[in-house]
Each structure stands twice: as C-alpha cells, then as structure tokens.
Write a structure and sequence with these properties.
Mean pLDDT of chain B: 83
Number of strands of chain A: 2
Largest interface: A-B, 29 and 22 residues
Strand content of chain B: 5-15%
Oligomer: heterodimer
Number of strands of chain B: 3
Distance between the termini of chain A: 27 Å
Strand content of chain A: under 5%
Helix content of chain B: 55-70%
Low-confidence stretches of chain A: none
Strand order of the largest sheet of chain A: 1-2
Chain lengths: 233, 110
C-alpha cells in the first residue's frame, strides 16, 4: 500500500504553515486519498490504477497548496505571531513591571547584599526583590499558557516566558559595557563580580523564576495535546 | 455537471447542509454531497479542504481528530451554533435566487 502521507508531503513540500498545522493538513489530505484509494480497490480496480485515479482528484497541487495557505491565513483576525508571541510576551512584561513598581513603592523591602552595616563594603551590591521573584513563576505560567493555547512553538513559549528579563539582559550586555566605555562616573564603580551579582539579581534569578512557572505549564499543555490527539479527541 | 463558478457559491450551503445531520470527515462529506445531489455537485479534494478550513476560521464548523474502530485517525467536522445560525439565511438566499432565476429564465426544476 502506498504511503499517502509521504506522497502528500512530497506534493505539498514547502507549504507555508506552522509545523503543527502542516502535519495536521498533510495527515488529513493523506487520509482522504487513502480512503479514496481503498474505495477504488474495493470496486475491483487494480492497485496501480487506483493510485493514479486517487491522485487525479487533485488537478494542480501547487494551486491546492496556495489555496490551503490562503484559507488558513486570510481570515485570521490577528496574525499568529501576535497571539503566539507578542501578546503573551508583552503581558508578562507589563505584569512583571507593574508588580515590581508596586513592591518598590509599598514593600516588602528588598534583600540587599551586603547589608549596609556589613563588613565587606567594597564587594558588589545587589538589590534582590524576593517577593517579586516569588510572583514571577505565576507570570511565567500565564505567558506560557497564553502562547501554548494560541499554538505557539516551544521557542515562542520560551521567549514569551522570559520576555520580561530581556530589557535587563540588554542593559547588562549592551547598556552597561557602553556606559563603561563612555562614562567615567559609571566605570569607576563597576567591578567584574558586581556585574555578575547584578546579572544574577536582575536576569538569572528572574529568568529561573519565570521558567519555573512557565516551563511546566508548557510541558503540561503539550502532554495534554499529545494525549488528546492519541485519544482522538 | 454544475460548473466551477456556481459550485463555489453553493459549497458553503452544501457543506453546512450535510453537517446538519451530524459530524462527518472530509471524504465522507464529499461522498454524501455527490450522492445526495446525484453527482451534480462533486467536490474535489482541492475544492473541499480549503473551503472547510475557511469555514472553520469563520467558526461555522469545528474540526477535531477522531479515531475510528479500525484505528484510522480522521478529522471530523461538526456544525457550530454559529454555523447552524448561518444555514437558515443561506438557504433563504439560495431559494430566493432559484425563484428569481425561474422567473427570469423560466428554468424549470431550478
């Protein structure tokens, strides 16, 4: 028996759909051709002719490819990239900034290292908003849920989760080195350990907190999707 | 056999009508339409699926994967409340059109 999935995949190679959507379309069309082929066989038509006749149901595969692409995309009120990435990403960014501002204004106070009375006055200073870090998993989970629900890929989900720390990362990787080069007032206070402590406080810990909440949601949603498919829901 | 242009216009009505009686997968849908119209409306794979996807985007129908008793996975489509709502005015529009054509061209059995 011919591998209809492979045949359709070859005929529609390069179809511009999301991977998940593409595999569903290919499986559906292959299933249709297979049923057609089986029906022709049951009518006593030879295998070779049944294949040919089933394939003739599509006059022009290029046209089919284009019409499927436009049918899948044309009437989408919001581009997929917006629902899968930009919307959850900006929501996580907004929420994390709002919560940080509220905590900075109303407390609780951050953990400061070293404490002002500490002995190691020359060591780097980091301000860690522990209560903010504790809220970040919830925000990460929300971003992951929104992105995954819109059919986002693992990359889109990951970026939606960690989006709130990207401005800080940009600051540490671009802003701070530029400031070090251009501004003496910044340069004289910066030490390499301070850089890493600051990076941990504003990038690594928040990213870990966001991912701690978001990544399990992603895997849970993915597992549900796989099990619902295998169960044929 | 009805020409492509007319067929395109009737496709929505045909699909919504066959789904009114219960969920169907694409192949079965095409077969039923062909059977019930005595071969006058015959949807090729290339005409059927883009139409189904478009109607799904409009939320008139909803597709979900189902596994048959022989273990074959098929995407079954069912009518949504929005699709059911759409069916009635669509039927009215088409019967108005047929009536107008009958009056105009004296087409019998339109």
């Amino acid at each position: 028996m011919p591998d209809w999935q492979q045949i359709v995949s070859g005929k529609l190679s390069g179809i511009a759909l999301e991977p998940d959507e593409k595999s569903q379309v290919l499986e559906e069309l292959a299933g249709h051709l297979e049923e057609d082929y089986q029906s022709l066989l049951s009518q006593g038509i030879s295998d070779e002719r049944a294949i040919q006749r089933a394939l003739k149901r599509v006059d022009d595969w290029q046209v089919l490819k284009q019409t499927i692409e436009s049918a899948r995309k044309k009437e989408n009120p919001m581009p997929k990239r917006v629902t899968q990435f930009w919307l959850p990403a900006f929501l996580t960014l907004l929420l994390s900034m709002v919560f940080l501002a509220v905590i900075q204004r109303f407390g609780p106070n951050p953990w400061v290292t070293p404490a002002s009375g500490g002995r190691l006055r020359m060591t780097p200073v980091a301000v860690v908003y522990v209560s903010w870090l504790l809220l970040l998993p919830l925000i990460g989970a929300l971003g992951a849920y929104m992105s995954r629900r819109a059919g986002g890929s693992a990359r889109a989900v990951f970026l939606s989760i960690v989006f709130p720390i990207l401005p800080y990362l940009a600051f540490f990787l671009i802003g701070l080195p530029v400031a070090l080069i251009l501004d003496d007032h910044v340069a004289h206070n910066i030490t390499i350990p301070a850089f890493f402590v600051g990076l941990s406080a504003w990038v690594i810990f928040p990213a870990a907190a966001l991912l701690a909440g978001g990544w399990p949601v992603h895997f849970f949603a993915l597992r549900r999707l796989i099990s619902s498919r295998s169960a044929g829901s | 056999m009805i020409g492509t242009g007319v067929k395109k216009g009737t496709a929505e009505l045909a699909i919504l009508s066959v789904l009114e009686n219960g969920p169907l997968h694409g192949y079965e849908m095409a077969r039923r339409i062909e059977e019930q119209t005595k071969g006058a409306l015959c949807f090729s794979l290339a005409a059927l699926y883009p139409m189904l996807y478009r109607m799904e985007q409009r939320r008139w129908i909803r597709g979900s994967w189902e596994t048959s008793s022989n273990g074959r996975r098929r995407r079954c489509y069912r009518l949504t409340p929005a699709g059911r709502k759409k069916l009635s005015p669509l039927r009215d529009e088409w019967s108005e059109l047929f009536a107008a054509l009958r009056r105009l061209a004296k087409v019998s059995n339109a």
